């Protein structure tokens, strides 16, 4: 095959990898080290967004720089769906970098060099996952992400962190190996594994074999996406520093799993085949179960980060549900929810981190009246909570609307009930935090004492974007248009089936 | 000169081995120069021979004008050429690495060390290069005897280990010789190519069957294929650190390579008793992979853990033979290269830690990442490769092996390979946790540290650090560019799909 000489996808991957090396070398000079992070983040944004116009008009950028195994290329392919994820992750990396620097310095954390280097490697892997054009390429970056996240999870180096790290590795490595079997199996039966909109597995093997493959692939991607009962690592991994939870456990790592589910459904099996072998229905019910149960568990958590973690588990299953509905609007909603949830949840985690370093409070029960001391932080927190609950004019509503329509397109109104139920539950576990912060008083927080500016500005920024996107879903990076393009590509037909979307 | 490269590769280390004690008597510096130059020269000639084999096809080198099958010939095809390069490369790296360990030894000990070391290299190179089955036995004995001697020089516990290895190794070599005797008896030839032709009509005769089974047992003992691995853990644990990275890296791989030659080139994988033998190999290998990994988890000594891991990893190679299709064989042969580099790297790290802190116990590896960042970085890469995580080399051998196993419909092997990856993760991440994460109790320095007083120096002597870093980076490069090796070196030599 002939590919263009456009090396931008490769550079998007490599730029933060190079930065990771430079960060390691400049460990003794914190300012220089942070300079590399910022430079790489800016460069990544420039590279990724320079490809946006090409992708928006429906073209793809392809690149196969080398054969990575016999007969299989390291194949990078920038399409609409990959662009959503890449643009989102690269933009939020920059925001998180500023926040990280503030957080780590305010927290006087140790091992900061390893921290920033691992972070940069994670972002490289995320780009690779977004742009992967075949399953082997996807898997390579997926496993790099697994390993690069490990140092961040065990950052504190104490007993709890090591335990969390072990749990994390046990879940992700086992799942990764199972997925590897499925990938090689696909390689054998299909003779290749290049992603194709609408899938390429139809007619390659018996339904039974395809079902097993589907289960293995969904275990592999589902662990990172926190589908129950594979979610156990996520709350334990919350021992990581808050910026890690914010970017990786709300955007990059877990979304890599959710993104993987979308890829598997849309580009490996194809919606039709995925439905025919019965995987769609099963997955939809698992997702619905996860959405409801995680909300119920979240209500019982007092530690703010743990509560957010369970909320994340539930929200990720929205994306999974979108894929499992195998309708155009369902997929559209799922894809857009990757964006929507990212902005809302990163805001919430930023707030939790700001509270942690400013007041050293981690438990919700200790936060009565905190709105008096940190009004901006708690306002942003409230916006994020309302978004998670699905209030109109905040970005979460857009994706939920499409998901609900997608469920109706499939003729399964029951999932609409699940979405509504989940929204109601969210009002019981997140909104009370804001209510408690503003409408109760406590002697502990007598006067204003906000977080450092390098933490406050990022969290206000992401909260504002959550509102802007809620009103103009296509603003900025055209996330909505990209999602529409991708859904149409997968279903290979006109705008008719998209009717009724937002 | 250039038309003699195949034999020069073998002869140069052999002559240097004979010269080494004398050189050591004259000057301790001289013996180092002579030995390292000799290995380096062998590296160059083997590379030149490989290049010619790649461009002009298989190179048959005939001795003294006696045409085969009467005379002995050396055959350098891309596969055997590739393995000679592997041997000389690791031999060169480990020769440099050993310098600081030998610095304070007497001239006699240094001279003998280098003589034996060069004999091992020469013997292994001869085994790979030769096209004659009896000549192969001679080189097998040369390298084995030298290995026994070197392992015995590691202190008083190593004497017992070496003696045990000597007994078992000699039995293995005898089995091999007996097997060759049977084959010679029925075919009247010792030349591999000639025998391949003459064996075909009499494939099912009892003599051939007995001969092949004996050869399999002999080579199985030498490559420590489970359950014939009893000699290996002690030998690897107590051998001197200046030599064990080389022995652990390539000494078990060469018999594996001979096994491949024997069953897939000379006899043919589909004929006579070979399918049955391969089935047996497959199941013992599978058992060995699992039990080796479980035993590795149970070890508290880092070297012993690596030794048991070697038992498991040799199983991967044998498993690839048993899978028997093109992908399985690619996986097996690629794993010969990959595992040689990884295991050498790991033993280099073990020796480096021993040199610096005097420790081999995993529980004493605390806080090492701060003090030896490059060494532990190389260790982390090698560990990931052992687990089989992309993009390291180990992942790709696993990729081809699983691809072959699924293609052949051998699902139990798929399960074994994947399970073994996870077991590898258990014992390697335990070491990673100790050296990167855990703090020594009470913040006190538990370990002695040879470099404590000299601040600002490298973490290890440069002669030790360079091989560690080179092999660590090599694991990554070997992974990323494995396709080059597969399509350049392996593809044309592997028999077209075996069965």
Distance between the termini of chain B: 41 Å
Oligomer: heterodimer
Through-space gap between termini of chain A: 39 Å
Number of helices of chain A: 21
Work out the count of structural domains of chain A. Answer: 1
Query: What is the beta-strand fraction of chain A?
Result: under 5%
Structural account:
- The complex is a heterodimer of chains A (502) and B (499).
- Chain A has 21 helices and 2 strands.
- With 502 residues, chain A is mainly α.
- Chain A is globular and about 70 Å long.
- Chain B is built from 21 helices and 2 strands.
- Chain B has a two-stranded antiparallel ribbon with strand order 1-2.
- Chain B is globular, with a radius of gyration of 22 Å.
- Chain B starts with a helix and ends in a 9-residue tail after the last helix.
- The mean pLDDT of chain B is 88.
Write out key terms for the chains shown.
heterodimer, A: mainly alpha, globular, B: mainly alpha, two-stranded antiparallel sheet
What is the gist of this entry?
Chain A is mainly alpha-helical. Chain A has 21 helices and 2 strands.
Itemize the secondary structure elements and their pairings.
The complex is a heterodimer of chains A (502) and B (499).
Chain A: H1 8-25, H2 30-50, H3 52-56, E1 61-69, E2 72-78, H4 80-106, H5 112-131, H6 135-153, H7 159-190, H8 207-225, H9 233-236, H10 242-269, H11 271-276, H12 279-300, H13 304-324, H14 328-359, H15 370-373, H16 375-389, H17 395-409, H18 414-429, H19 431-439, H20 453-471, H21 475-491
Antiparallel strand pairs in A: 1-2
Helix pairs in contact in A: 1-2, 1-5, 2-4, 2-5, 4-5, 4-10, 4-14, 4-20, 4-21, 5-6, 5-10, 6-7, 6-10, 7-8, 8-10, 10-13, 10-14, 12-13, 12-18, 13-14, 13-18, 14-16, 14-17, 14-20, 14-21, 16-18, 16-19, 16-20, 17-18, 17-20
Chain B: H1 5-26, H2 28-56, E1 59-62, E2 73-76, H3 78-97, H4 99-102, H5 107-129, H6 133-152, H7 156-187, H8 192-199, H9 206-222, H10 232-238, H11 244-251, H12 253-266, H13 274-297, H14 302-323, H15 326-357, H16 368-371, H17 373-387, H18 393-407, H19 411-437, H20 462-480, H21 482-490
Antiparallel strand pairs in B: 1-2
Helix pairs in contact in B: 1-2, 1-5, 2-3, 2-5, 3-5, 3-11, 3-15, 3-20, 5-6, 6-7, 7-9, 7-10, 9-12, 10-14, 11-15, 13-14, 13-19, 14-15, 14-19, 15-17, 15-18, 15-20, 17-19, 17-20, 18-19, 18-20
